[in-house]
Amino acid sequence: DAGVTQSPTHLIKTRGQQVTLRCSPKSGHDTVSWYQQALGQGPQFIFQYYEEEERQRGNFPDRFSGHQFPNYSSELNVNALLLGDSALYLCASSSESRYGYTFGSGTRLTVV
Amino acid sequence: DQQVKQNSPSLSVQEGRISILNCDYTNSMFDYFLWYKKYPAEGPTFLISISSIKDKNEDGRFTVFLNKSAKHLSLHIVPSQPGDSAVYFCAASEGQAGTALIFGKGTTLSVSS
User: Fold this and answer.
1) So what's the pLDDT on residue B96?
2) Which of A38, A49, B32, B75 has the smallest CB count inside 10 Å?
């Protein structure tokens, strides 16, 4: 049973560019949340998608946007990249019927 | 305005002894608490959780204690093993499924043999 799959694993982008990160949830999960983990910090909640809608959002600017597809997979888009966006981006999936989050291994984004 | 605080960045323990990791929170609306373990190059892995209606939850070598009046929880690992060496994150949420997890900054546990 595959867990949460994220792609790519590593990415280097230039300041001002745009990036798309992808996440496939664990089988049986219908909710996807995205977190940003900066060096030396804990994961910070970006937003959560359920039924293809953004249900909850953390304190992140509009440059961060997302999408959820009918198969429950999700994308995180970041526009106008800043050096401060360099971080590990984690996807977590969960089920509405049972509490619990499963995290992927993350995408390491470096902005130069 | 950090809502979940782990004030000890690191902890070193000898194999076989007890490891105690601490976490404080400020939001009285939190009613579910979790501990995650994270190895380098991997995502956080769920360890153990506790609901606010309980004050203790055990799972093998891991026990979590919750003191709601003090807004404090702790994770006890007994006995500690070298494989327990990792970063441990405390997280909290308001409500059950579908709510965001708020994480602390983590505590790096090193268990020496």
Assistant:
1) 64
2) A38
